[in-house]
Specification:
The complex is a heterodimer of chains A (about 110) and B (about 120). In chain A, about 0% of the residues lie in helices and about 45% in strands. Chain A contains no helices and ten strands. Chain A is globular and about 40 Å long. With about 120 residues, chain B is an all-beta fold. The termini of chain B are far apart. The chains are: A mainly beta (about 110), B mainly beta (about 120). At the A-B interface, strand 4, strand 8 and strand 9 of A face strand 5 and strand 10 of B.
Chain lengths: ~110, ~120
């Protein structure tokens, strides 16, 4: 089955850069989408189609695709960015899957 | 304004049936896929399946085939997720979401389902 792999946790100090990776085990690679989820809240989209930022999402959020790995980068991390982040994609059959999630801790 | 409003929290016993809802407004409900996502306590997001209310085309993620039923009533712009016999392992938060060209860009607030044995 199609799987997306994320690191369980990432920790950074305020003002530093956080990089959260997402790798897919199948090809051809589909677009990857990213969501931020804070405790008790619904997921919020923070990136779509690998590197497009939805309106209202701060410019410090960016996405990149290196072929085998997609990365969500948060530059100048702020305390409010502490959350769980999930990548999402679809396999060639149109089955949508999420990565296991990455807990971003702002030290 | 696009909105997905889900039904309220439910507390049920194992073996009971349940149907939760997701009502869309501010968009043409028949023109977008609606999906359901499970989040078990303290765990990650899991995609259960999707439905296209325009023609009721429904697709289940392999892990959730046969576990619950997704349906929609386009006359009242509402999608449903239902169980015929709940298990304690169905205890979770359930979210609905709408698919657009920008991905799953709109989400409901979630419905908490608690199943006691």
């Amino acid at each position: 089955s199609y799987e997306l792999t994320q690191p369980p946790s990432v920790s950074v100090s305020p003002g530093q850069t956080a990089r959260i990776t997402c790798s897919a085990d199948a090809s051809p690679k589909q677009y990857v989408y990213w969501f931020q989820q804070k405790p008790g809240q619904a997921p919020v989209p923070v990136m779509y189609k690998d590197s497009e930022r939805p309106s209202g999402i701060p410019e410090r959020f960016s996405g990149s695709n290196s072929g085998t790995m997609v990365t969500l980068t948060i530059s100048g991390v702020q305390a409010e960015d502490e959350a769980n982040y999930y990548c999402q994609s679809a396999d060639s059959s149109g089955n949508w899957v999420f990565g296991g999630g990455t807990k971003l801790t702002v030290l | 304004e696009v909105q997905l409003v889900q039904s309220g929290a439910e507390v049920k016993k194992a073996g009971e049936s349940l149907k939760i809802s997701c009502k869309g407004s501010g968009f043409s409900f028949t023109s977008y896929w609606i999906g359901w996502v499970r989040q078990m306590p303290g765990k990650g997001l899991e995609f259960m399946g999707i439905i296209y209310p325009g023609d009721s085309d429904t697709r289940y993620s392999p892990s959730f085939q046969g576990q619950a039923t997704i349906s929609a009533d386009k006359s009242i712009s509402t999608a449903y997720l239902q169980w015929s016999s709940l298990k304690s392992s169905d205890s979770a938060m359930y979210f609905c979401a709408r698919l657009s060209t920008n991905g799953w860009s709109y989400w409901g607030q979630g419905t908490l389902v608690t199943v006691s044995s």
